[in-house]
Amino acid sequence: MSVSDTQTVPRVVLGVGGGIAAYKACELLRRLTESGHRVRVVPTAEALRFVGEPTWAALSGQPVSTGVWDGVHEVPHVRIGQEADLVFVAPATANILARAAAGLADDLLTNTLLTARCPVVFAPAMHTEMWEHPATQANVATLRERGAVVLDPAVGRLTGADTGRGRLPEPAELFEAARLALRRGAAAPDLAGRRVVVSAGGTREAIDPVRFLGNHSSGKQGYALARTAAARGADVTLVAANVSLPDPAGARVVRVGSAVELAEAMETERVGADVIVMSAAVADFRPVASAASKIKKSGAAPAPIELVENPDILAGLVASRDAEGREQTVVGFAAETDDVIDNGRAKLARKGCDLLVVNQVGGGRAFGTEDNQAVILGSDGTAVDVPTGPKEDLADRVWDLVRQRLV
Ligand code: CTP
Fold first, then answer.
1. Directed axis angle between helix 22-34 and helix 171-184, to 10°?
2. Burial of residue 151 (number of CB atoms within 10 Å: 0-12, 13-18, 19+)
């Protein structure tokens, strides 16, 4: 995309609040401009205490002001918001969330938030106590009800030595969140208020302290599902089995290793979930026992590894839902090498889930690649073909079909 082609260049307003995480917004800004976005930075006066105006002006190539009295002839307090394709606020402090929820218009950023008719995303960052305070939570709920996407902050090191929920996600993931928001355009965050649980990656079954039985799953499809669900406003929990990808912005990540650990995590997370998506590749079998020490060569023939079957987590989730009479949509994935549709239909019936995303694997397809292609089978007999494309396209198709099933 040519930056000079102002007709097609997406216009992003980057709102920056007065928090120490403002320095991460510099990197986000850089990524946005380098990928061809036209970015107008609108910091609060407090944000400039952390990162000065010259930095924002130089990185964006645009004028920077905090108040409504600069360049009045251009009516910036109205125009900046009206012309934006996306307003992305990072870090969004407790103060910004409160001012936005109250509809105040006391600086350029709050004026911009009131005039914007494009998608608005807040990436909050603050200390855990401030995030958890009922006042902040009420403000977040208000903003979400009005159609804004408010990404849950990440868990990790905060300003001082303390750790907890309240950290701004990493700039690369903020960039992904901004990109997905632009990609959705005017579409409403249709999963707002929904709790979704996505499993991703592949389980590892220990043979001894250094070896395991595993599979090729990279976790990319599950992470794409988590990212796109967050972009659609969902409350996302990602149960990740051995994935070495950065945490998607807005998702709560629970890490597991083995199938039994994954089963335990899903048993906890399924409660209160509106949607469960099992995209993790689960090992069907595990060694009966894991050796306490590394197994050594002895010169004799190797001892066979005795296996025991793992629980079928997906079938178990469906059985619990049905037994408890929950309104919950359950989605499975199937990796097939042959007779993809027939095997898929048989698996859908066997597992009892609502949707089964069937993709053909082997020959370099699906595992670790950026693209995916699949057929999504419905328990009502439907079959939706998703042509080869980014894993986010498949993820969005899954959410479209899930959305139709949610009451
Ligand atoms: N799955 C599960 N628990 C298992 C095995 C699989 O929850 N022990 C889930 C996967 O997460 C996926 C779906 O079931 O959503 C299908 O996985 P797949 O490996 O294709 O199916 P299997 O049941 O293992 O069937 P088979 O190996 O016979 O193809």
1. 50
2. buried
Q: At what angle do helices 313-324 and 340-351 cross, to 10 degrees?
A: 40
Q: How many CB atoms lie within 10 A of CB 57?
A: 14
Provide the whole-model pTM. Answer: 0.94
Return the structure tokens found at 93. 């402090």
> CA-to-CA distance for 130 and 153, rounded, in angstroms?
12
pLDDT on residue 366: 56
Ligand 1 centroid to Cα of residue 198, in Å, is: 15
| Cα end-to-end distance, the chain, whole Å | 40
Strand, helix or coil for residue 356: strand
Residue nearest atom 12 of ligand 1, based on CA coordinates:
333
Who contacts 279 (Cβ-Cβ below 8 Å, separation ≥6)? 198, 199, 200, 221, 222, 225, 333, 357
User: Could you tell me if the CB of 313 is within 6 A of ligand 1?
Assistant: yes
Q: How far apart are CA 19 and CA 122, in angstroms?
A: 14
Whether the per-residue pLDDT at 3 is higher than 50: the answer is no
Say if CB 394 and CB 368 are below 8 A apart.
Answer: no
Specify the pLDDT at position 5.
Answer: 47
The alpha-helical segments, DSSP class H, found in 332-405 are 340-351, 391-405
Q: What is the pLDDT, as a whole number, of residue 370?
A: 80
DSSP state of 302: P
Q: Which two tokens stand for residue 225?
A: 């599902």
Taking the CA of residue 333 as reference, the ligand 1 atom at the shortest distance is 15
154-157/163-167 β-pairing: antiparallel
How many beta carbons lie within 10 A of that of residue 275, not counting itself? 26
Cα 30 to Cα 26, 37, 94, 212, 279: the distances in Å are 6, 10, 25, 41, 33
User: What is d(CA 380, CA 349) in angstroms, rounded to the nearest whole number?
Assistant: 11
**Strand-pair category, 38-43 with 11-16:** parallel
The residue contributing the CA closest to ligand 1 atom 16 is 334
Q: Does 282 contact ligand 1 (Cβ within 6 A)?
A: yes
In order of start, what are the domains of the chain with their CATH numbers?
3-184 (3.40.50.1950), 195-405 (3.40.50.10300)
The pLDDT score that the predictor gives to residue 368 is 66
Distance 281 CA to ligand 1 centre (A): 7
Does the CB atom of residue 221 touch ligand 1 within 6 A?
no
Q: Three-state SS for 308?
A: strand
Q: Rounded to 10 degrees, what is the CA torsion of 383, 384, 387, 390?
A: -120
